[in-house]
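Input.
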Amino acid sequence: MPQGEIVRVRYAPSPTGAPHIGNTHTALFIWLFARHSGGRFIVRIEDTDRERYVPGSLETILEGLRWLGLDWDEGPEVGGPKGPYFQSQRLKIYQQFARHLVETGHAYYCYCSQERLEEMRREQAARKEPPGYDRRCRNLTSKERGEFESQGIVPVVRLKVPLEGKTAFHDLIHGTVTFDNRTLDDMVLLKSDGYPTYHLAVVVDDHLMEITHIMRGDEWVPSVPRHILLYQALGWEPPKFVHLPMLLGPDRSKLAKRHGAASVLGYKANGYLPEAVLNFLAIVGWAYDDKTEIFTRDELIQRFSIQGIGHTPAIFSQEKMDWMNGYYIRQLSIEELARRAMPFLAQAGLIDDKTDVAYLHRVMPLVQERIKKLTEVAGLIDFLFLEKISYDPALLIGKEMDRSATTRALESSLVLLKAQDSFDAVALEAALRPLAGQLGLTPGQLFGTIRVAISGKTVAPPLFESLAVLGRDRMLKRLAQALELTKTLR
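Output.
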């Protein structure tokens, strides 16, 4: 990079739906490179495909960036000196450069109808030829063009690709990549409705916005030679190219929902922490060394480099992401865990504005070591917030127990706990553990029955800590209710 050059990179999503996690992965790498280099991170909205436009998707894209803390220096909501940052607001610019390319002999007007193009493709397929425009309009005379225009036909503009030779470019990850020009067709630059294709718009915008590095997924490599030809035709110096590894599922197929992949806000809704998602995505396809996996945001910015990006597709592991999310949950203070869990508990109807936050702080330690996602909290601790619980009474009967043994266990536990003075977890365990032997039961059998009685679950947070948080009155009430339920058992 030339001395004194300020890095300018862009993330250019299309508002055609919620951003896939692969798009967010690309955005993160671009953002990290900008922040590491002290450069500018630009968000540009490529919204010229009006047929695929999805209302609300722009807001979803920006909210996802904000959730991960990927702030932008120029773009929607913040403006900047190279705007507008919506391609739909730049149509006259693209039209101007399309005319310029025609006038300088680097592009031409094409009058072929959609029906003619479809027939051409069918014939190519029948001959087992690769699809591509046959250049019928490439060398029309001015008289022939005039005849088409007199019929009211509005042409598209196509790039006049060299028929021989090669086009090469250097990629900072993959090295030199070369294409035979004869494999490239004369692609459309400007459609008949005046809207640009991706190829014209991206080249013009990247140049006018002074983008220094184009960072995008590997799937865009085949488009680069066309873009290089456009840069050359316009007399511009291309930016540097950095094509990032694709994300694959564990089966090495294209990442899809079946692999657990979702939109970034889908992960938010499913109880993932933004710092965990940020860390996980950063180490998929990039490595600082062969052992470090946990990075703070500042550490990622400091250590990120293009040299650390992999050359091959990266494997996305949902299991690894879940592990990392659990790790980050365990690093939170109890107060912070409670704050982050509150929206999920409110959604489950367990808390409201009147909920005692101090009580919530007592509950959180029961699950912090057990959960991997915030969505798991409500299902584990709901019994601590509900006035009444319901469950199948048969669950009270533990392994190798019968109704009689279960009844004795509940009766004895009630008598013992009513006489108990101290209700902290240590005292409760000290009182109940000897009772198992006195009843001829294993601790697991006795504690399992008590667990179901107070929680309605066979699997719940640690028993004695749960008893302590539940409190004397509610604990005794639930044991008494369970004893009544045993009368319904055979």
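The mean pLDDT is 94.
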